[in-house]
Amino acid sequence: MSSIRLDRLGKSFAGIVAVADMDLNIGNGEFMALLGPSGCGKTTTMNMIAGLVEPTHGRVMFGERDVTGVPIGRRGVGFVFQNYAIFTHMTVYENLAYGLRARGEEASKIDARVREIAGLLDLVAFLGRRASGLSVNILQRLAIGRSAAVNPAIFLLDEPLSNVDAAFRAVMRAELRELQRRLGQTMVYVTHDQLEAMAMADRIAIMDRGVLQQVGSPIEVYREPANTFVARFMGSPSMNLLTAGVSDGALSFGEMGSLALADGKLALTNGSSVIAGFRPEDVRLTDPANARLRARAVFVERIGARVIIHFEDRGQSFKIVESAGFPVAQGDILGLEPDTERLIAFDPKTTLAIRGAVSHGLH
Ligand code: ATP
């Protein structure tokens, strides 16, 4: 079994908490992304899984095996760092064969495996080349191939694509995902890039300041963020978060207007206030004459196939995304119709989503 379980895992450096009481289950063969901003504790978590950092408390389990005190060399993990470590004086072939030779595998087996990995990672044309003359893109591919060649049951990658160029990164995302599926490995992938996590992972574990915020499939964390941190962190532009008052079954947005709710659809106390969360792509722009909410476009940003329209409400800015052909100019007053099925209410004090606050369907 190559499932991974983190059990109340924590690490402090000189009294500063890098990772706090983390509980996380990663299934056998699952691709899990560890996602969060710089300094949130992703690398420290990864290093504890790998055996490079000793936890302050808690356990790391691989299947039924407690590996907490086991050094990296005996954990059976493959590890690829941001800064690839490869032998530049060797050829690509020798680099790929290195781990297999160290294990004493038969020459014919090594050759077959090297060619298989080279094929999967598009390295066949470079097999005879010395690593020292190759581009960063190829070297990073080689670093991944070298770790993958020995077929570790658990494969750990820490920002492996951060040094490669954007076009190559897009190709590598798809290739890495394919590699992981074919080899059936359990993969933990550290990234600060939410798009990368969304594109690749089965599930995403989102961290902030050492604390795990939410674990879920890409669509779950996108559609059902557990709190305002996750709501802001996922998606680009991120989820709009506007203060709204609750009065007589309606959410009121100051001068913009209010969204009235069908009876019993809003389980929130009259007179309270919430943070209303809605995605920039989940609002329809309509004729302002008949719309429930109205706002003036303060800025219009055209980016390729999309137009991002910026608005302001009581000092809070928010954005709505339309396709490029949408007719809008700065200063226009537009009607806004949020998709109320997708609207989320957050508690302004705790920042947590209030589940069941809006039970599908504002009218
Ligand atoms: P980045 O994306 O910038 O690498 P990260 O999310 O991986 O960030 P970590 O590198 O795990 O975050 O760091 C988490 C916290 O622990 C940070 O505040 C960092 O300064 C601190 N930290 C990490 N390693 C050490 C160390 N060896 N000694 C002291 N503090 C450390």
Description:
- This protein has 8 helices and 21 strands.
- With 363 residues, it is α+β, with helices and mostly antiparallel strands.
- The chain folds into 2 domains: 4-229, 3-Layer(aba) Sandwich (Rossmann fold), CATH 3.40.50; 241-357, Nucleic acid-binding proteins (OB fold (Dihydrolipoamide Acetyltransferase, E2P), Beta Barrel).
- The strands form 5 sheets. It has a 6-stranded mixed beta sheet with strand order 6-7-8-3-9-10, with helices on both faces. Strands 13-12-11-14-21 form a 5-stranded antiparallel beta sheet.
- α2 (92-102) packs across α3 (107-120), α2 (92-102) packs parallel to α4 (136-149) and α3 crosses α4 (136-149).
- The chain is elongated.
- The protein starts with a strand and ends in a 17-residue tail after the last strand.
- Adenosine-5'-triphosphate binds next to α1.
- The site of adenosine-5'-triphosphate has 11 residues, from α1.
Protein topology:
Layout: E1 4-13, E2 16-26, E3 31-35, H1 42-50, E4 57-62, E5 65-66, E6 77-80, H2 92-102, H3 107-120, H4 136-149, E7 154-158, H5 166-183, E8 186-191, H6 194-200, E9 203-208, E10 211-216, H7 218-223, H8 228-233, E11 240-247, E12 250-252, E13 258-260, E14 273-278, E15 283-286, E16 293-296, E17 299-303, E18 306-313, E19 316-323, E20 333-338, E21 344-346
Parallel strand pairs: 3-8, 3-9, 6-7, 7-8
Antiparallel strand pairs: 1-2, 1-4, 4-5, 9-10, 11-12, 11-14, 12-13, 14-21, 15-20, 16-20, 17-18, 18-19
Helix pairs in contact: 2-3, 2-4, 3-4
Bound molecules: adenosine-5'-triphosphate.
Adenosine-5'-triphosphate is lined by residues 13, 18, 36, 38-44, 192.
